[in-house]
Amino acid sequence: MLIKQDFSVDRTKYIGGSDIGAILGLSRFRSPLDVWMEKTGKEVKKLDSLPLRFGSFAEEFVASEYSRETGFSLIHDESIYIHPEHSFISAHIDRFVLEHGSPTPTRILECKTANPFASSDWGEVGSDEVPLSYLCQSIWYMAITNINKVDLAVLFGNSDFRIYEITRDLELESAILQKANLFWSECVIKNNPPPAQSEADCQALFSKGDPSKTIEAKSETLALGKRLQLLHSEIDIREEEISMIKQRIMSQMGEAETLMYQGKILATWKAPKPSFRLDSKRLEIDHPEITNNYKTPVQNSRRLVIKHVN
């Protein structure tokens, strides 16, 4: 039996639809470690950005456009739904869909907004060719609600509206639930972090260093250090070449702000509009009594420095 609860409950107690893509390593915005740190209470970030705020604001519009295009009625239920067999698996459904005359929901509607430049990540309208994180989110919701279809309604910019249809896949659903169970039991319950997938993950996982601690490098780590030095030297060579090319182009342009080739703009060299910044050094000299009141300590991230290795 499906369980409904208040959506204001603590997110750290559940894996939600927006988490599963990250857990599976399919999100461009969050890693499995980010989810682990949230679920274990080590760091709960308040996700807030202009695209997120716009997506939340536009949800009602996207839903209304979907209803207008399909003729289906919608139910907006802000409850949190819990999987009947796994108490940590949850869903917050954007809308339930009532097809023509149906007394009970027959589909789920997920409302999305997307950058028009990302439209290549999506396939033909009406297909299930959607970004993998959204596909997993749809599978997740069907597993919880026992509903067999999810429609993804997507607004690209303000002029391209599309609807994609995801059909329930029990084999994929089972694999995703298995991964979620493993993450919850082995990482969250046992407080074991998943492997780091980026430098940012390493900084988050090992944010504090121990000055008294030194370890011996493995032979493969020594090889990595040498490889890193080689790559840095190649970068220096490329940057020098880039600088030389820019110098030659700039020398040809002289005082001209635009460089043309057969009627097309090849390059521009213009001064940007003036910008203003606070001269903190001068302010500190002229008014030290003011600046001292507004100084706050800043804890910088640890910096990895590879020493020269022969």
Task: Please explain how this structure is put together.
- With 310 residues, this protein is an alpha+beta fold.
- It has 2 domains: 3-205, Lambda Exonuclease, Chain A, CATH 3.90.320.10; 216-267.
- Helices cover 40% and strands 15% of the residues.
- The protein has 9 helices and 10 strands.
- It has helices at residues 17-23, 32-39, 50-70, 132-145, 170-189, 199-205, 219-253, 280-286, 288-291, and strands spanning 3-5, 73-75, 80-82, 90-91, 95-98, 107-114, 149-156, 160-167, 258-261, 264-268.
- The strands form 3 sheets. A 5-stranded mixed β-sheet has the order 2-5-6-7-8. A 3-stranded antiparallel β-sheet has the order 1-3-4, covered by helices on one side. Strands 9-10 form a two-stranded antiparallel ribbon.
- Helix 1 crosses helix 4 and helix 4 crosses helix 5 (170-189).
- The protein starts with a strand and ends in a 19-residue tail after the last helix.
- Mean pLDDT is 89; it is low at 1-8.
Summarize the structure.
With 310 residues, the chain is of the alpha+beta class. The chain has helices at residues 17-23, 32-39, 50-70, 132-145, 170-189, 199-205, 219-253, 280-286, 288-291, and strands at residues 3-5, 73-75, 80-82, 90-91, 95-98, 107-114, 149-156, 160-167, 258-261, 264-268. The protein has two domains: 3-205, Lambda Exonuclease, Chain A (Alpha-Beta Complex), CATH 3.90.320.10; 216-267.
Keywords:
310 residues; alpha+beta; Lambda Exonuclease, Chain A; 2 domains; 5-stranded mixed beta sheet; 3-stranded antiparallel beta sheet
